[in-house]
Q: What sequence folds into this?
């Protein structure tokens, strides 16, 4: 098991790809740490809007929203999502939001 | 009441009709038209290997006697009153509802897809009309760049776009113009397929056939006039002919039925029992659900067995059967009269071996063979005559047979299984 240690905080467990094992261990500082590690120097309000939507949807429904849902319901259009979270917005926003990797459907 | 008269709706209606006498249960099937399309056949239409009229039959005629067929659109399902409201204003009350209305194509969700060039140089073979139009375009094609793409999962039969690329390679060879055609397979995934071992095999095949593979490409816009497919992160793939699989969602009435579906219109469904999360007397199967396995006829067929049993148990007040394991099995056409076969479930990914008997086969898994191709062609007959009527397919079980499991079972039960 890999761990992640934000500055001055106890270590938290993450999986091989860096997703938190326990969403309950998530804090806003931790989000900043994960973001920096993934090439996002500073989380803007727009980033937070997506991360919070992602996290609350997961905590309410047990599933992380897909990119299409994010585009429709988070208030941030898909194109901007790709600018905010390069490559895989849903995956990266989930990682920063401390929830499990969205299950790729088949 | 069964919504949808496709693969799932038809086989459930027929199985339930066999289970219950007309005095015990009234069975109704609702669909908006009377055209039952054998969807696996759509893949062959663009290459002139099948005609649309050979793969379409009346829905009504696939249903056993004693099943009412309502040809009408559905307005919405009212879960609270246990009734389906039809577009013609009538209401169908139910004790048990089965949702089997499949998936709907949404080309309009991708910017520009249905704009300039749609049905001229941008096609989808996922509808009979699209497949027939593409057949015309391919016959007239004399060279250039052909791009095969699917926008995002979930899609029906996730291997079909790959099969299309393989068959296109074969088709242009046959026409003697393969050297004048560039073929590219453009996918949002990070490899040729979702499952790692199969993905590796299939990437190898693409390379062997000289088909370019572009991965992690999330198509956000189709520019028909400029012949460009543009991703959300602003990468571009040029094309002369684009064969695309549009985004999928559930049927529209699901979105109009409070509490029934998710935001894409798929029905949240227990992956083991196929009971919906909406209400205990609502079940769902096939492409209409959100269960994490392929949207494919084989899945629907395997689900059908558990679902029929669970409707019976629900009506009898018994505990539900939770034995559906996500079993899927797909033939993958690879061109030149060969095909590959994969067999997997929620937990076991497609692996080499033999099917349906783990060691005896006769069909090889994850390996190109002529026998698999013939089996794929033969399957159409089985579909209309064995699968839809609700008969058993000999040697094929709803649950995945892994080699280990079968050997253990054989040792225990003296090979009876």
A:
């Amino acid at each position: 098991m890999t761990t992640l240690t934000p500055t001055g905080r106890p270590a938290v467990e993450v999986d091989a790809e860096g997703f938190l094992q326990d969403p309950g261990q998530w804090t806003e500082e931790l989000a900043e740490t994960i973001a920096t590690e993934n090439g996002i120097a500073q989380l803007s309000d727009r980033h937070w809007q997506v991360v919070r939507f992602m996290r609350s949807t997961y905590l309410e429904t047990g599933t992380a929203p897909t990119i299409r849902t994010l585009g429709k319901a988070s208030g941030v259009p898909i194109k901007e999502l790709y600018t905010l979270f390069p490559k895989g917005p849903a995956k990266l926003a989930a990682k920063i939001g401390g929830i499990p990797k969205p299950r790729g459907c088949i | 009441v069964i919504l949808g008269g496709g693969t799932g709706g038809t086989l459930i209606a027929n199985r339930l009709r066999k289970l219950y006498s007309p005095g015990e249960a009234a069975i109704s099937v609702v669909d908006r038209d009377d055209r039952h399309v054998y969807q696996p056949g759509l893949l062959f239409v663009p290459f002139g290997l099948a005609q649309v009229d050979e793969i379409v039959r009346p829905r009504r005629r696939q249903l056993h006697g004693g099943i009412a067929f309502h040809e009408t659109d559905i307005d919405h399902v009212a879960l609270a009153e246990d009734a389906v409201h039809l577009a013609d204003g009538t209401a169908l009350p139910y004790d048990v509802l089965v949702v089997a209305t499949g998936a709907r194509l949404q080309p309009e969700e991708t910017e520009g897809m249905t704009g300039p060039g749609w049905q001229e140089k941008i096609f989808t073979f996922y509808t009979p009309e699209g497949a027939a139009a593409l057949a015309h375009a391919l016959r007239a094609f004399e060279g250039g760049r052909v791009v095969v793409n699917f926008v995002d999962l979930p899609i029906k039969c996730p291997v079909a776009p790959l099969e299309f690329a393989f068959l296109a390679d074969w088709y242009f060879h046959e026409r003697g113009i393969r050297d004048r055609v560039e073929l590219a397979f453009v996918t949002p995934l990070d490899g040729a397929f979702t499952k790692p071992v199969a993905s590796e095999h299939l990437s190898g095949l693409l390379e062997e056939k000289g088909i370019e593979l572009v991965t992690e490409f999330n198509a956000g816009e189709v520019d028909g006039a400029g012949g460009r497919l543009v991703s959300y992160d602003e990468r571009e793939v040029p094309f002369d002919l684009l064969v695309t699989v549009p985004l999928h969602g559930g049927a529209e009435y699901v979105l109009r039925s409070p509490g029934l579906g998710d935001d894409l219109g798929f029905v949240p469904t227990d992956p083991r029992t196929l009971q919906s999360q909406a209400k205990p007397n609502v079940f769902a199967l096939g492409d209409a659900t959100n269960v994490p396995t392929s949207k494919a006829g084989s899945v629907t067929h395997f689900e059908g067995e558990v679902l029929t049993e669970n409707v019976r148990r629900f009506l009898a007040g018994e505990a539900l059967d939770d034995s559906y394991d996500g079993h899927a099995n797909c033939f993958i056409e690879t061109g030149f009269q060969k095909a590959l076969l994969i067999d997997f479930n929620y937990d076991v990914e497609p692996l080499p071996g033999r099917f349906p008997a783990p060691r005896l086969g006769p069909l090889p898994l994850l390996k190109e063979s002529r026998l698999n191709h013939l089996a794929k062609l033969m399957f159409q007959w089985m579909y209309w005559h064995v699968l839809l009527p609700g008969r058993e397919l000999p040697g094929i079980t709803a649950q995945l047979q892994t080699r280990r499991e079968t050997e253990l079972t054989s040792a225990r039960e003296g090979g009876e299984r």
User: Anything to note?
Assistant: Confidence is low (pLDDT under 50) at residues 404-417 of chain B. Residues 38 and 380 of chain B are 8 Å apart (CA to CA). The longest strand of chain B covers residues 328-335. Residues 297-316 of chain B form the longest helix (20 residues).
